[in-house]
Design a protein that fits this description.
Blueprint: H1 11-40, E1 135-137, E2 143-145, H2 160-172, H3 177-188, H4 194-220, E3 224-234, E4 237-246, E5 249-255, H5 260-266, E6 275-278, E7 290-293, H6 295-309, H7 312-330, H8 335-355, H9 372-382, H10 384-387, H11 389-392, H12 401-417, H13 423-441, H14 446-454
Parallel strand pairs: 3-6, 6-7
Antiparallel strand pairs: 1-2, 3-4, 4-5
Helix pairs in contact: 2-4, 2-14, 4-13, 6-7, 7-8, 8-9
Length: about 475
């Protein structure tokens, strides 16, 4: 903007120029603040993952009060120290010399004065079992021939334990295919090609698909279910991994898009009638069920408003929510306490509205591009019941951590192995992951379950 000639301007023009400059200055300050906030966002004050923090990782801040739970094992925690066994597999006696090295006398029969046990893994070697069928010709001329078991379908093949171990390492412990093949070669002498590993994974997915469909039905009928999604690279393109989880169930699926199209394709959320816990993403509101919002997201955003905008109401809201959650954990709240929390909540929203009012157009409608604190205040106000649902319903948790934990390991898989090369491979991973994570929550031995599945009898998780 060219420098105006103030001497040639009348008072009215000068007043107009001042108002214009003040408005422009306010707009520039707002844009600078928005840019500073964007640069200052990290995992502790926004929904950005810790991996995006770079080298300047912030010090973790726990919501736990000092002294609430001391470090180390908690009272009543069962230890996991190595314990002696009553019947060892092998006994090695370390004998003495026959005579005393001081006087030369013959030593009498010695007794065991102390025993120490060493736990180790025996050398592993692949075991080959040859199956044979026999035949005989009857005197009448008919030839009788025995049959191979149904599972013995090829001249040479890998058994259920090898296949289960491959799936266990690649789909539960997230090892890459080549590394898995090398581990089995070095530890057991099993020479696997990458193609063989992939075939085992797809076989497992086929075996487990009916059980995973039952898991989806169980989650759909749950009273409370958690929902989340995250991006995944599949065949060089961006896809979305969706998860639905309950305390003892996990279902994972992959789709080309995020949102209602994926929800409808999976068929869980459209027929869900319980309470859906999520991060407040708008497409979840399309579905006719009760909702609960993740307050861990709110705490991070409130932290940002407090630290970057210097707003004290945000810190007080953090204290209110954290205190309320701690009180709920100790038992149901009284009616008077519920009324007090709601009153404090209302008062804090009013304080925030004074500092960050909604910008409106001349016709009274809200402008687009509201500030981050304003958007947060609006969500806390409009979805108040969903934010505070944990106060009155003991089955509704304070956070959506169950769903976020369900997507964490698939992200680890992507970081270790890169993208999935095919959509079928990603879908197989989701099927197996749904089964294994559900069994893990229920305390089932995963490797043994996979062995039984390859033997034709898939252990079923509890879905009640």
């Amino acid at each position: 903007m060219d420098q105006p000639d103030l001497s040639a301007m009348d008072h009215a023009a000068k007043d107009d120029l001042i108002r214009f400059l003040l408005a422009e200055n306010a707009e520039l300050k707002s844009r600078i603040t928005a840019l500073e906030v964007r640069l200052a966002k990290d995992s502790h004050n926004s929904s950005k993952p810790p991996s995006s923090d770079g080298l300047r990782k912030p010090a973790p801040k726990s919501l736990r009060q000092a002294g609430q739970r001391p470090k180390g094992g908690q009272k009543g925690h069962k230890g996991s120290a190595l314990e002696r066994v009553a019947e060892p597999d092998h006994v090695v006696n370390h004998p003495l010399t026959a005579t005393c090295d001081a006087c030369g006398s013959t030593l009498n029969e010695a007794h065991v004065s102390e025993a120490r046990q060493v736990f180790d893994i025996p050398p592993q070697q692949v075991e080959v079992t040859e199956h044979r069928v026999v035949e005989v010709r009857c005197t009448c001329g008919k030839v009788h021939r025995s049959e191979f078991p149904k599972a013995i379908a090829a001249t040479t093949q890998y058994g259920p334990r090898v296949q289960a171990t491959v799936v266990y390492l690649t789909q539960h412990h997230m090892l890459p295919i080549l590394r898995t093949a090398r581990i089995l070669r070095d530890t057991c002498g099993v020479a696997l090609s990458p193609g063989a590993v992939v075939r085992m994974i797809h076989t497992a997915a086929g075996n487990l698909a009916p059980t995973v469909a039952q898991i989806a039905d169980a989650v759909r009928n749950a009273c409370v279910a958690h929902f989340d999604e995250t991006g995944m690279r599949v065949a060089g393109k961006f896809h979305w991994l969706h998860t639905t989880a309950a305390p003892n169930l996990t279902w994972v699926g992959i789709y080309t898009r995020r949102g209602p199209e994926a929800f409808d394709a999976f068929g869980i959320l459209p027929r869900f009638q319980g309470i859906a816990i999520h991060d407040g993403w708008a497409p979840y509101r399309k579905y006719d069920c009760l909702h609960g919002l993740c307050n861990a997201h709110h705490l991070r955003e409130l932290t940002m408003v407090h630290e970057l905008y210097g707003q004290r109401w945000a810190k007080r809201m953090i204290d209110l929510l954290v205190t309320a959650n701690r009180e709920v954990a100790d038992g149901p709240l009284t009616d008077d306490r519920m009324v007090q929390i709601n009153a404090d909540y209302t008062a804090l929203l009013a304080q925030g509205d004074k500092v960050h009012p909604i910008k409106k157009r001349k016709d009274g409608s809200a402008q687009r591009g509201q500030s981050t604190p304003t958007n947060l205040l609006r969500r806390l106000r409009e979805h108040r019941d969903d934010v505070l649902r944990f106060l009155s319903d003991p089955e509704v948790p304070f956070t959506n951590n169950i769903a976020e934990q369900a997507v964490r390991m698939p992200k680890v898989k992507q970081k270790i192995s890169g993208c999935f090369r095919t959509f079928n491979g990603a879908a197989a991973f989701c099927t197996i992951r749904s089964y294994l994570e559900t069994l893990r929550k229920q305390g089932v031995d995963l490797l043994h379950a996979l062995v039984h599945s390859f033997q034709g009898v898939t252990p079923q998780p509890a879905t009640g």
